[in-house]
Design a protein that fits this description.
The chain is mainly α. The protein contains three helices and no strands. The chain is elongated. The termini are far apart.
C-alpha cells in the first residue's frame, strides 16, 4: 500500500506559529501567577526540546517571555 502525503510547509509554519504565540501568552500569564516556579517551567521546556530532539533554541523566545525578558510579538 502506498500513501502519498503532500504538506504545504507554509501552512505548517502558520500552525506552529499560532501554537507558539498561544504558548507565549500562556507563559506570560503563568509567570504572573507563579513567579516562584519559573525555573521549573524553563527546565520543562528544555526537557521537551531534548526528549523530542528539537533544535536547542526551539523554546528560547518562549523562555524569554516566561522570564519577562521579551514580549509575545
Amino acid at each position: 500500500m502506498s500513501l502519498d502525503i503532500r504538506l504545504d510547509l507554509t501552512e505548517v509554519q502558520k500552525v506552529f506559529s499560532a501554537y507558539q504565540t498561544a504558548l507565549m501568552s500562556f507563559c506570560r500569564e503563568w509567570r504572573e501567577a507563579y513567579p516562584d516556579q519559573i525555573p521549573q517551567a524553563e527546565q520543562f521546556l528544555r526537557d521537551l526540546e531534548e526528549k523530542h530532539q528539537l533544535p536547542e533554541s526551539a523554546f528560547s523566545k518562549v523562555i524569554r517571555v516566561l522570564r519577562g525578558e521579551a514580549d509575545e510579538t
